[in-house]
Amino acid sequence: MSFRTIGFVAGAALALTACGGRAAQDSTAPIRALLSADALMLVSFDANADLSVSRDEAEAGFAREFTRADADNNGALSPIEFSNWSNLVLGGSQIGPYRLDFDRNVDNVITREEFDTEMRARFSQYDGDENGVLSRTEFVRLVGQARPPAPRREPTPQMGQRR
Questions:
Q1: Torsion, CA 111, CA 102, CA 108, CA 94, rounded to 10
Q2: Is 92's pLDDT higher than 60?
Q3: What is the number of other CB atoms lying within 10 angstroms of the CB of residue 53?
Q4: What CATH code would you report for 35-145?
């Protein structure tokens, strides 16, 4: 095989790779759905397996999760307890909800009241039709913004013009 043929094949492979990269960022590509860590937790509160989470099921779930997180049973969560709970239940402390979402007064203690207040707010955010019940479709967020941003094109100087 000649160097010219090898060069042609390598160039064609690079061109196909570049096209594939653009296709993945195409604005007509299907929008993906995303379930966040808090949504996955809320889904787990479906005690009667009816594929929805009522406010009562959510309240029971909030109590269970606070009890799970409160390792020393003192009625409050320390930063370490919250981090351990977050890693166990939410899949990691880097993906949210974050400790300061719960600890609004930033005293390094999350009380049961603070925990419940944040969890109720999250429940309400998902309850799009405000009927007090979360359906599966309410958990799904369409995330068109999750697509990688299109590369910003810098203006190129016209030939013969100075910068």
A1: 140
A2: yes
A3: 26
A4: 1.10.238.10
